[in-house]
Design a protein that fits this description.
alpha+beta; NADH Oxidase; 4-stranded antiparallel β-sheet; 17% strand; globular; binds flavin mononucleotide
């Protein structure tokens, strides 16, 4: 089990990727890891749109101001759910997608594949580039690829990169 702990502690965001495709079995494993995530009432209200086409990746990089890394990725996986912003939608839609995303990024890390999320600010761009149906929503796109700089896989965390345990933990009550 220490492998899981090592991956949780060691995984860094990777935003610059080598110019080569992912091995098909790596890409399949990554998406499959997302499918294995738990979800509220096991509803699995997610679909994953896998993109490898260079022009489409370039277009997807326009979904938001911090999505440039998608343009250089070997593959992107768009997380598509029912729209969580409409009245009465369940918060668990976004929770569930987040669990699937972390599963994918950790599975990728084990394979030597780096990743980074991109927040979709321009829903219309994601919708148009990916052909998402009207009743669905794409809040996040994940970039994947072998790192351009292999040292990204062993890079230590930035100093102060995470709040200390003592600061975030509250025991028994706030
Ligand atoms: C919900 C969420 C949305 C994010 N959106 C973006 C994004 O749009 N662009 C980006 O480059 N990184 C994005 N990130 C990555 C964060 O910036 C990153 O997790 C944080 O800076 C910590 O980086 P580190 O793990 O390398 O220390 C997102 C992360 C999360 C969890």
């Amino acid at each position: 089990m220490s492998d899981v702990w090592d991956a949780i502690r060691g995984k860094r965001m990777v935003r610059r990727f080598a110019d080569r495709l992912l091995r098909p079995e790596h890409l399949t494993r990554i998406v499959d890891a997302g499918r294995h995530a738990g979800s509220s009432k096991n509803k699995q209200r997610w679909d994953f749109v896998v993109v490898e086409d260079r022009a489409r990746l370039g277009a997807l990089a326009k979904v938001g101001p911090f999505a440039d890394h998608v343009g250089g990725a070997a593959a992107a996986v768009a997380l598509v759910t029912p729209d969580p912003t409409v009245g009465g939608a369940s918060l668990s839609l976004v929770w569930d997608a987040g669990l699937a995303a972390e599963n994918m990024m950790l599975a990728a890390w084990e394979l030597g594949v780096g990743s980074c999320p991109a927040t979709v600010y321009e829903q219309s761009v994601a919708r148009q580039v990916l052909g998402i149906p009207e009743d669905r929503w794409c809040g996040y796109v994940l970039s994947f690829g072998y790192p351009a700089d292999p040292e990204d896989m062993t890079r230590p965390p930035k100093a102060g990169g995470r709040r200390p345990l003592d600061e975030v933990i509250h025991r028994e009550t706030w």
